[in-house]
Amino acid sequence: MTAPIKTLAEIEKMRIAGRLAADVLEMIEPHVQAGITTDELNTICHNYIVDVQQAIPAPLNYHGFPKSICTSVNQVICHGIPNDKALKDGDIINIDITVIKDGYHGDTSKMFVVGKPSIMAERLIRVTQEAMYLGIKKVKDGARLGDIGFVIQQHAEKHSYSIVREYCGHGIGAVFHEEPQVLHYGKPGTGEVLKSGMCLTIEPMVNAGGRHSKLLKDGWTVVTKDRSLSAQFEHTILVTDTGCEILTLRSDDTIDRIVIAE
């Protein structure tokens, strides 16, 4: 199926939802400290989305998901369920936010570090964010999805990391997950052709060890099979005639200044 093209009115609603999702990540950053539980982070985010933004946390009750955000710590790849376990110094955590405003979704995530990270964790986080940025820079009218997946995979594997293949980015709009599927690996010149007005997420999941994952008994939490660290970044993107617009851009994003280390 082809990804739907958004109208100008829909694009404006996507911009608003994207800005709100980005704002939640900026709001929660000072709270990500040793001793706080991921359930407490969930409560803070939920209250901010509902009471301050007058919006809806999309994950809550989505196919039965029990919380308002996803919190994926250390070896958790994605869809971690907030719980009563406290964060400790050296932990890395991905917080994934999806906000619904006026019927449209803004979806974004970033990595946070608790205290001082290990050199390995710091490097994994940096390379994962760079991979996402490289993928975003390939987005434009006429590009193919394989072009995006290829540069992300190439960058991760150049640093001896692996790309998770069971989970991917997706089209987004009035529906949380719509066409197309945005793989974070692939071959240039293959896959669906992007058209101006499409909205999609780019959200590479990069493992320090092997690429294989394991779904836990809760039916949601996905971990690395070899228990290695995993990192992820995500933005919601609007395809434009000349390139793209990052609808979930934050003040700490460095895509225009980034220097990719060899």
UniProtKB/TrEMBL annotation:
Keywords, ordered alphabetically: Aminopeptidase, Hydrolase, Metal-binding, Protease
Cofactor note as given: Binds 2 divalent metal cations per subunit. Has a high-affinity and a low affinity metal-binding site. The true nature of the physiological cofactor is under debate. The enzyme is active with cobalt, zinc, manganese or divalent iron ions. Most likely, methionine aminopeptidases function as mononuclear Fe(2+)-metalloproteases under physiological conditions, and the catalytically relevant metal-binding site has been assigned to the histidine-containing high-affinity site.
Binding, substrate: H79, H177
Domain Peptidase M24: 12-241
UniProt-annotated binding residues for a divalent metal cation 1: D96, D107, E234
UniProt cross-references to Pfam families, sorted A to Z: Peptidase_M24 (PF00557)
The EC number(s) this enzyme carries: 3.4.11.18
Calcium is among the record's keywords: no
Catalytic activity as recorded in UniProt: Release of N-terminal amino acids, preferentially methionine, from peptides and arylamides
UniProt xrefs under InterPro entries: Creatinase/aminopeptidase-like, Pept_M24, Pept_M24_MAP, Pept_M24A_MAP1
UniProt cross-references to PROSITE patterns, sorted A to Z: MAP_1
Gene3D superfamilies: Creatinase/methionine aminopeptidase superfamily
GO MF annotation terms: aminopeptidase activity
Residue sites binding a divalent metal cation 2 per the record: D107, H170, E203, E234
Cofactor: Co(2+); Zn(2+); Mn(2+); Fe(2+)
Function of the protein: Removes the N-terminal methionine from nascent proteins. The N-terminal methionine is often cleaved when the second residue in the primary sequence is small and uncharged (Met-Ala-, Cys, Gly, Pro, Ser, Thr, or Val). Requires deformylation of the N(alpha)-formylated initiator methionine before it can be hydrolyzed.
HAMAP family: MetAP_1
Subunit structure: Monomer.
Family statement: Belongs to the peptidase M24A family. Methionine aminopeptidase type 1 subfamily.
Protein known as: Methionine aminopeptidase
Gene name, Swiss-Prot/TrEMBL: map
